[in-house]
Design brief:
6-stranded mixed beta sheet; 6 strands
């Protein structure tokens, strides 16, 4: 679910920032139930930090289907897939900068995906690439002609970076089934789980 807060307004070249994060409860089947609940959060903002929209989604499935890495990937995917329907003037944006605290996502898309594709979705060691379905989806949307140029930037997690913390809280709330409302304060929320 996306919630627009403000329109993109600019008469100059523009970078749209998407801060994304994933969260999960029962990663690795810690409680033995075989069921996991995941959430993704995203924040769209201008370069000066003006929040334009928020993104939240909740997922429930087996612990094989809902993992922390899959939630991190889905956060980036959904943030990009939601852009065309969310912003009418996306053609004015030059670059979408996706910020993630997941080294798995940022290194995968920036450093490894080309080699995985060349090796028919196998790692250097010959093992199948995990989460191939989501990597293919992220690769397709980040190279789509429907979007401006897309870049992926690694950010530090849990270091007080305001928009990264906001994305984390949105993901954590989604896991709990709590949804953002207009009076929500982004301070002092507890973490669900963060694993890579």
């Amino acid at each position: 679910m996306t919630r627009p807060i403000a329109p993109i307004t600019s008469s100059r070249s523009l970078v749209l920032h998407a801060w994304v994060d994933g969260a999960i409860k029962n990663n690795g089947n810690k409680d033995g139930s075989g069921i996991a609940i995941g959430g993704v959060g995203g924040v769209y903002a201008t370069a000066d930090g003006e929040v334009l929209a928020d993104l939240q989604e909740r997922f429930k499935g087996t612990t094989a289907e809902v993992t922390n890495n899959r939630m991190e990937l889905l956060a980036a995917i959904l943030a990009l897939e939601s852009l065309p329907g969310l912003f009418d003037n996306l053609d004015e944006v030059d670059v979408v900068s996706v910020h993630s605290d997941s080294a798995y996502v940022v290194n995968g898309i920036n450093k490894h995906i080309g080699a995985w594709i060349d090796r028919n979705w196998h790692t250097r060691a010959g093992a199948p690439v995990k989460n191939q379905d989501l990597w293919e989806r992220l690769d397709a949307i980040s190279g789509s002609n429907a979007l401006p140029s897309v870049e992926f930037v690694k950010t530090s997690g849990h270091k007080g970076i305001e928009l990264n913390e906001r994305a984390d809280i949105l993901a954590t709330q989604a896991v709990r089934g709590e949804w953002l409302d207009d009076d929500f304060e982004f301070e002092g929320e507890e973490e669900v789980e963060e694993e890579e």
